[in-house]
Amino acid sequence: MRRIFIKQALLQTMQAIPRMNSKPNNLFLEFASNPFPESSALYFQIMQKSSGGRPKKKLYERVDDLDRAIDLQKKPSIILELKNIILKSKTHSILIRDLEKEVGFVQKWNFMAVIEKYPSIFHVTKDAGGSRSPIMVKLTDKAQRVVAEEDDARRLMEPILVRSLRKLLMMSKDCQIPLQKIELIQSELGLPKDFSDSLIPKYPEFFSIKDVDGRPYLHLESWDSSLAVTAREEKFQILAATEAEKDKGGLDCGGYDKKESKISRDGNFFGPFAFHLNFPAGFRPNTKYLEEVLKWQKMPFPSPYLNGRRFDPADPKARKRAVGILHEILSLTMEKRMSSTQLDAFHAEYQLPSKLILCLVKNHGIFYLTNKGARSTVFLKEAYDGLNLIEKCPLLKFNDKFVSLGCRRDFNFNSSTSSYV
After folding, report:
1. DSSP assignment, residue 212?
2. Which of 44, 55, 202, 392 has the fewest beta carbons under 10 Å from its own?
3. Range 132-137, long-range pairs (CB < 8 A, 24+ positions)
4. Per the database record, which ranges form the PORR domain (predicted)?
5. 118-127 long-range Cβ contacts below 8 angstroms, 24+ apart
6. Pick the residue with more confidence: 406 or 164?
7. CA–CA distance, 199 with 186 (Å, rounded to integer)
């Protein structure tokens, strides 16, 4: 329905309401004359759904590639989950009738559709008990040969996981995090499901599990200053070294580029406290907005690895530090993305903004929030080229190789046209 029709209908309804006195209050008159103020959420929703007439008002630009990345992940996630279900069985197979116990009644049909669609990965067979014997599914011989490489990928992942856990603990206020919250993001980090038993005890010099108020906490045993460097700072150091080689003397002691005199139209600024910005294609910032962005990019802020208790949350520098913490947390995940619910679960440990969603939307050049899929997902924009993740860890490379067994063509890790069919 167009906005004009809704507005007229609402005005007619309001005019039909009997007035209690001859002097209606100002609020009623204001609402009757403009029932859809431009700042209201209702206005935003209706304008987004309207068709024809006046142009749509977009308050938050969509990034189609990142939305599509969520859609393309649905089938691969089912393939990988089914692989894990099969492998954890002693017989490395599962009866179709038992699938519902593992994934639930609704999801069972999605899994059965995947089994039918990918015979190169999953082999359906029966016991030798005749036509009434139960149907079971197992991995094909080709899939089993690829699965044999998973142990190597896990071994390569172990030092990465240890480093990520240490950095997460170092950023927290008390260098400890409830074990339950680590378990909440274990898939995003790439941790095995039994990491508290299989990984943590192997590194007593780094970790311990302690009881705090009746809850198990993962505790940091030793601080390492060499790890107290963010992914953003590491990239700046690499770029600064490259620029220094190209143009010696082009950088001053603060790390700013002397040759940059004009305001960048994309908001990017080469400096030690700047973030890489990637505004949506439809976003057209004016000069005043870009001036504010440049001022914010230049503003120094405390390291995310300093104790957050030192800083007043209302201080602009502390607010920028909160953006740095969100950036660093996402950088430590395998796919540089996490659900907004998972991020918000660490509010107390990292002193995240009270209005987390507003912070993410406000910094839409750094983060992208999408409601595609079963939950809202936060992307670190600079980690993606279109819909492709730029850097992949060993476990993600193994997952890609396994899922590619079901593709119609050979999988190319660097190809933006590769897809799961």
Report:
1. E
2. 55
3. 134/95, 134/96, 134/97, 135/95, 135/96, 135/97, 136/93, 136/94, 136/95, 136/96, 137/82, 137/86, 137/93, 137/94, 137/96
4. 62-405
5. 118/79, 118/405, 118/406, 120/405, 120/406, 121/79, 121/83, 121/402, 121/405, 121/406, 122/82, 124/96
6. 164
7. 12
